[in-house]
Every structure is written in structure tokens, then in C-alpha cells.
């Protein structure tokens, strides 16, 4: 059986990122939040756009004020008032100053701003009591960014700070990667939708909904294909439908060793190459990872990247843990994120409770990751950690890892915790 690390490497090696030419679209700035840049962004504007004042005060010539002090103030004639947004009309000559406000354009002739606090106004004159540094409080044009230089590189995820930068630079049309298409379906004769009345023995198909939510949060488009009974012909038809439009397929159930577990055999029959059958992880041991060679070989890329198929365990806890541990990195890489941002984030946390495992497989225990007095703490979810207990999975923000060979980690010890974040 593969270790978790081996499985992760195999999965990442199977993923081909979206193509930076073919798999892109142009979006407006207002619709760009959460998207990933597919091309470098360059602005035609300097930042700041022009020399401007960092203070409320007076724009002066440094030579006029360089040797003043409280006993011998410089006295300058005020020739103009320059609020933000106003274009200065007059050049500051020797012996003159312009009143200037924060963010306003520097006038011709002036090279320095004296802050208001070091001055005294007397009608149309200003007295300056302290010599400033040369060029004090002047934000020079292009000091922070020069037009034509790279502003943001490809692979950046657009969030609030990037939106601020792009708006200020007037970059309103952005080339981003298209969203990856993730097709989801559930297998099982026992499954019904959350709306259907339950007959004895039936189980609600929570996976379809949980996985769609996971995909949405992970930045993909979820395409749900419903429930398929454990019948080879129906499964074969559904898998064929799924791979025709997906970048990634997520099916749940039917990958174990039970009498009704047909998925692996059908994948092989349909020409898939299976790379993983099971992983030494708990929960989530039965995990099938397969690739389908592209159906249409004739597109512009020569060969389309293969469709990546995850046959996840049916158990809802196992299915979600597998998504967090194995599907998310694949989706990240496919989406165009840089390799350094693809793998899950593990943090060191002090566990508040003893963590127990069998020692045979790498074990992931769910709970809450909290920051207490500046350190991470892991709070194990209360109740049973049987993979059949779905209910205490709610509000999970971290998965504590008990390595192979360890059967207990005492309360108060440091543990590795996979941080669940989007
Ligand atoms: P399987 O992997 O198909 O053997 O399923 C393992 C367990 O998970 C069984 O108890 C199933 O009833 C349950 N299960 C399978 N699929 C789903 C699903 N889509 N939603 C909720 N539970 C499921
Ligand atoms: Mg089943």
C-alpha cells in the first residue's frame, strides 16, 4: 500500500496545469476576486502618478528654508492653495510657498514640503520654524511603480489587496485561468437525495452536496451528475458521461472490496490507467486514482491533458478527508497556482486532548485549530472518531496527524495539523 506522501507525489505528477494560452478568459476587475492570473499584468501608469505631498503643509524650495530655526524663521509669501485633485497653476519662486494638502500635486519650482505643525500662518505669509530634510514629504512620481514594469506575475490569486493594486493602476481587464470543471457523482443502491423520504435501510447522499461545496470553496466549478446505482451498465454510462466534460471527476463509493464495488473494474474496461488503488491513511484507505487519455486528440494542444479520476470512499468522512488531503493539491495545481502553493499547509499545534491511532496507517483526526496566546492549539472534535460518524465533522478547521507507528500523542504535545483553509 502506498504511503500518504507517495500518493500525494503520484497525484501531483499526474496533473497538468491549465494552459496559459488556451485555458484562459478575460474578466472585469469587479468579477476577478478569487481568480488566478494567467498572464503578467503591466500598467501604463506610474505610481504615484505625479509628485505629490505626503502631508498637509507648505510646498517650498529647500534652499529657502534650509537654515531657518525657531529664532530665525523663514518667511515666505503664499501664492496658491493646492487641495488634492487640483492642478497647480503657479510656479513657486524663491521666497514663495504654496499651501498644499495631503495627496495634492506638487507645484513647479517646489521640491520640499514643510509640515503644517512646524509653521505659523500670518495672512498671506507663512513662518517656518524648523529646517526640513531636502525633499521631505514629497512622494516622487513613479517612486513605488514605474509604468511598463511587471506589476503582478501569473499565478497570483486575486484578493482584496490585488484588487486595490489593479484598480489604482487602472488595469480593469484581466486574463485569468478558466475555472477547472469538476464532475461529481455518487454511487450506491442505498442512496436517496436529501429531499426524498427515507425508506428503511436507505442513506442520504450527503457526499454529492459536500463535494460540490468543497469544489466551490477550492475554486472550481462543480457539475453534479446525481446518484448512480451499483449496476455496471449504469456506472459505465455515468463514468463515460463524466469524463466527456471534466478536468477532474470525483465519484464516491464503490471502490472498496465489497460485492457491489465495480468502479475499479469499469475504469479499466473503459481504458483508464489506474495509478493508485489504496493508501495507508485513516480514514480514506480505498482511494482510486486513474487517468483517462484525452478523448479528442485533435485539438490545438496536440493532445488534451488526461482527465484525472478520483474514486473516493463512500463514507462521508473519508470522502471529505480525501478531498482535503489529496484532491485539493491536484485542483490547486490544475488551476494554475504556483507549485509552492499547491500542497496543504501543516502547522504545529499543541493538542488539547490525547490523540489515539492504531499505528498502522497515517491517521487524520478532525477538530478545530485555534490560536491561543499566540500559539496554535488543536481541539479534537468531541464524540466518536469512527469514520461512520459524520455529525462531529461540522466546524472542522484542522486535521491532526498521527504518524504511522505511533499509537498515542499525549495532551499538551506538539502535533502536525493540516489547516483547512480556502
Ligand atoms: P462504499 O464505499 O460504497 O462501500 O460506502 C461506504 C459507506 O458510506 C456506506 O455505509 C455507504 O452507505 C456510505 N455512503 C456511500 N455513499 C454515500 C454518499 N454519497 N453519501 C453518504 N453516505 C454514503
Ligand atoms: Mg457503495
Explain the overall architecture.
This protein is an alpha/beta fold. The chain folds into 4 domains: 4-18 and 178-341, Molybdenum Cofactor Biosythetic Enzyme, Chain A (3-Layer(aba) Sandwich); 24-47 and 146-177, Alpha-Beta Complex (Molybdopterin biosynthesis moea protein, domain 2), CATH 3.90.105; 52-139, Molybdopterin biosynthesis moeA protein, domain 3 (Beta Complex); 346-419, Beta Barrel (Beta-clip), CATH 2.40.340. 18% of the residues lie in helices and 31% in strands. Strands 7-4-6-5-9-8 form a 6-stranded mixed beta sheet. Strands 16-13-17-21-20-18 form a 6-stranded mixed beta sheet, with helices on both faces. A hairpin with a 2-residue loop joins strand 8 and strand 9 (125-128). Helix 1 (4-14) crosses helix 7 and helix 4 (206-217) packs parallel to helix 7 (316-335). The longest helix is centred in the last third of the chain and has 20 residues, at 316-335. The chain is elongated, with a radius of gyration of 31 Å. The mean pLDDT is 95. Magnesium ion binds next to loops.
Strands, helices and their partners?
Blueprint: H1 4-14, E1 24-28, E2 41-42, E3 52-53, E4 57-60, H2 62-65, E5 74-82, E6 96-100, E7 112-115, E8 119-122, E9 125-128, E10 138-139, E11 150-152, H3 160-168, E12 173-177, E13 181-187, E14 191-192, E15 203-204, H4 206-217, E16 221-228, H5 232-245, E17 248-252, H6 263-269, E18 273-278, E19 281-282, E20 286-292, E21 307-312, H7 316-335, E22 346-351, E23 355-356, E24 362-372, E25 375-380, E26 398-402, E27 408-409, E28 414-419
Parallel strand pairs: 5-6, 13-16, 13-17, 14-15, 17-21, 19-24, 22-25
Antiparallel strand pairs: 1-12, 2-11, 3-10, 4-6, 4-7, 5-9, 8-9, 18-20, 20-21, 22-28, 23-27, 24-25, 24-26, 26-28
Bound molecules: adenosine monophosphate and magnesium ion.
